Amino acid sequence: AKMKRKEAMLQEAMPELELDFKMAPAKQEVRYFKGPEGVITAYYMMLDEKVPIIYGLGGTGLLRKTLKHRHERFNADRLAQGVKCKALYYESVRAEKEKKPDKLFEVRYLPDSFKTPATVDICGNVVLILLAADMPRVIAIRNKEIAEAYKNYFDFMWKFAKK
Questions:
Q1: Looking at the whole model, is its pTM more than 0.85?
Q2: How far apart are CA 73 and CA 132, in angstroms?
């Protein structure tokens, strides 16, 4: 009789448990990375999202110099996967950026008066907040709502940035 009662309780609870499981939030995480290897690990979190575009906000080209061959490898993998980039760089790097055209890279420019050493990359549900320094650091956030918010900021700035 005791077993029957437990079984009945479980049967009663099942629909609610199933609903809880279905409503569980998508995988979320916050990670902190340091150094060139850490930055590249964070970059690959974006490619793991398997979405067709990366949005970059506040590019200066500093990280590329720090990452050297790692960045070239990442870029080759990005191109092989057909992942596009839409990026907002600063005016001071326009000449350098225009020297190296990339068919999957679309750039617009922000005034240098807004220039900071921090950049933000958004891809799928991943947001990378990067600090370009001698020892680069990244906070990687995997969260749908946060990614959507940063994408909205990007879209707003893209509208007003110069081609």
A1: no
A2: 19
